[in-house]
Design brief:
InterPro entries: Mce, Mce/MlaD, Mce_C, MlaD_Phospholipid_Transporter
Organism: Nocardioides marmoribigeumensis
Pfam family, one: Mce4_CUP1
Keywords: Signal
Protein name: Phospholipid/cholesterol/gamma-HCH transport system substrate-binding protein
Helix content: 40-55%
Number of strands: 10
Shape: elongated
């Protein structure tokens, strides 16, 4: 035995190699890395109890091993050796996990998606790595919960919830109203999203022109002072307007049928007025120009017109003209135009 130990020590001294223990020896049962493996470096904030030569798994199958673990600043860098037939995307992720509650640590890989592939010497950054929960952390959290942690609060919540659910009618009504509310919100989600988008655009517009908004607010101050000074008259006006609205509503409600009947009775008159067309304005024009309408001027052939007017204002004639009855009297007003009269210059 002494000769074997001396021989081994002599070999180490002659070769000049360092020996760090069993991890430097090639042990059976490791993964088959093939003839041309490649290395990928993964950065972790904490590698827990991960050791060199730990397994590297992909979809639960061991495909590689941990080559080296070293500290770089405040995080750890783990070199992974993988066979050439294991190809990982540049979006691949790595996670330090544990086989069981007290089992060994290993690195679990997710291949990711994308066209780019990880090559020899590439890195998996901190954003793409994570670690599992340690047994010590679970036991510590359980200890805090049991020793003055959240059990009292859980008991209070359970008691209050049981008290609230004791009255089944109120609970059912509350749940029905809650369902109605949630359904209404779900039906209006597009409008809510549109309102939020409009508010976002408004906020951006206000943010782009803060000086304009500030000037508008300063200019609005005098108007607000005027409104404040006129508050009592405005309130009084609105109160009277409310009473007027009530009276108007009552009048329309009580006389609505009569108003509709009057409008229907007025419809034939308006229809005939519309049908009269141009005749009505011409008739009004003749009445306003009586007793010298435009038609009288067509009888003139010269520069002037001799007109003789006879007026009969006897009672019988006046009553006959007013009532349209024939009482034996003559016309109340008559104009006689000679045929040989001349029209005055400049007249129509």
């Amino acid at each position: 035995m002494r000769r074997l130990a001396a021989l081994l020590a002599g070999c180490l001294l002659l070769t000049g190699c360092d020996f760090a223990g069993l991890q430097d020896m090639s042990l059976p049962g490791g993964p088959d890395l093939g003839s041309s493996p490649y290395e990928v470096t993964a950065e972790f904030e904490d590698v827990l109890g991960l050791a060199a030569h730990s397994a590297v798994k992909l979809d639960g199958v061991t495909v590689g091993e941990v080559e080296e673990i070293r500290r770089r600043g405040w995080h750890a860098e783990v070199t992974l050796r993988l066979p050439a037939d294991v190809r990982l995307s540049r979006t691949a992720t790595a996670r330090v996990q544990q086989t069981s509650l007290l089992g060994e640590k290993f690195v679990s890989l997710e291949p990711g998606s994308g066209s780019g592939r990880l090559a020899d010497g590439d890195r998996i950054g901190l954003r793409s790595t994570s670690r599992g929960v340690e047994v010590e952390e679970v036991l510590g959290a359980t200890s805090m919960l049991l020793n003055g942690g959240g059990l009292d609060q859980v008991r209070t919540i359970s008691t209050e919830l049981q008290t609230a659910l004791a009255n089944g009618t109120d609970t059912r009504r509350f749940l029905r109203e809650l369902t109605t509310f949630i359904t209404t919100v779900d039906q209006q989600r597009e409008r809510i999203v549109s309102i939020m988008a409009n508010l976002d655009r408004l906020a951006r517009s206000v943010n782009r022109d803060p000086q304009v908004v500030d000037r508008a607010l300063r200019d609005l101050a005098p108007a607000l002072r005027v409104l404040t000074a006129q508050r009592k008259p405005l309130v009084r006006m609105l109160d009277r307007l409310g009473r007027f609205s009530q009276v108007t509503t009552r009048v329309v409600r009580e006389s609505g049928r009569d108003l509709v009947a009057d409008l229907r009775a007025l419809q034939p008159v308006l229809t005939q007025l519309r049908r009269s067309g141009k005749q009505l304005p011409e008739s009004v024009e003749a009445i306003l120009s009586f007793p010298f309408p435009d038609e009288v001027l067509h009888a003139a052939r010269g520069d002037y017109v001799n007109l003789a007017v006879e007026m009969d204002l006897t009672p019988f004639t006046f009553l006959g003209n007013a009532t349209g009855a024939d009482l034996g009297g003559s016309l109340g007003l008559r104009a006689v135009v000679p045929q040989d009269a001349e029209r005055p210059r400049g007249s129509r």
